[in-house]
């Protein structure tokens, strides 16, 4: 048996799968809110969902980020393509002690289903929810699907805030136990009209956003202008702002994204830099590191959100080489004395469907 080791910061002493004790002034019992409220520079990332029903596919993706991030976004059918649900991913991640940020997109569910998912997520130990409108179905591989959009990101924020703070459903019916959640939203400082973007952030804060993750930042001067206005309006004191960053695999990839993905602004200078590099993938990683080192110095920036689609193996290198953690080590999934209890719980939940290898994986951790 693996010998006990000292408890990590922001970890429940009685089990890695248990929520942390509540703290005064905190709306959740999660690690991400604690890190941000302590004034530490936070790092989050995304776990792109598998086209699979095998839990190992989720765990294998999550362990890449071990010890380097403070939260992992469980993506909710981004691009209107079907994958494992964000609810399912969160169920697996919380069981193993990870700190998921559950995305909820309004495209596929009405307010009844969404409010039920919020309660279910909180019951599983999810402490963070990111409220999104969602891409239109025409963007995905099933354009004949019927979109819902009963709510949008703004009304979704208001809905979850009412559930948490007022202890009520939208219908007015009381909740027995309100969810304890840290609420997030997405912002795009690079989409026109640019002068409206800080105002739009203010609307999301008023609706309930406590932290935001931005669209990819490849234009630091444009982002700096956005933050100047945000500070003028005082929004940086009301909300934690995490800047979206990520590596570009090549100049060809950058051109394709710029031409085909709405809302992502990639300046010509970025493409020229990649084109002039002998190893474009390596240069794309270095570009991401350089951007992190610039934006982390901008007043009002509380962290970065590293999006490395199909380059997830670079996340640890990017965080390490950028030095943003300043020696701090986020929570890491390690073998410990309570692994046997968690493995037994997993086996009980899945009954005969769990494979011996899956239980062994939990027992040995990684």
From TrEMBL:
Pathway info: Amino-acid biosynthesis; L-methionine biosynthesis via de novo pathway; One-carbon metabolism; tetrahydrofolate interconversion
Keyword Ligase (UniProt): no
CDD domains hit by this protein: MTHFR
Residue ranges with Low complexity bias: 16-27
GO molecular function terms attached to this record: FAD binding; methylenetetrahydrofolate reductase (NADH) activity; methyltransferase activity
Keywords: FAD, Flavoprotein, Methyltransferase, Oxidoreductase, Transferase
UniProt keyword Transport present: no
GO process annotations (BP): methionine biosynthetic process; methylation; tetrahydrofolate interconversion
Annotated region (Disordered), positions in chain: 1-28
Catalysed reactions listed for this entry: (6S)-5-methyl-5,6,7,8-tetrahydrofolate + NAD(+) = (6R)-5,10-methylene-5,6,7,8-tetrahydrofolate + NADH + H(+)
Source superkingdom: Bacteria
Name of one Pfam family that matches: MTHFR
Family the UniProt entry places it in: Belongs to the methylenetetrahydrofolate reductase family.
Protein name in UniProt: Methylenetetrahydrofolate reductase
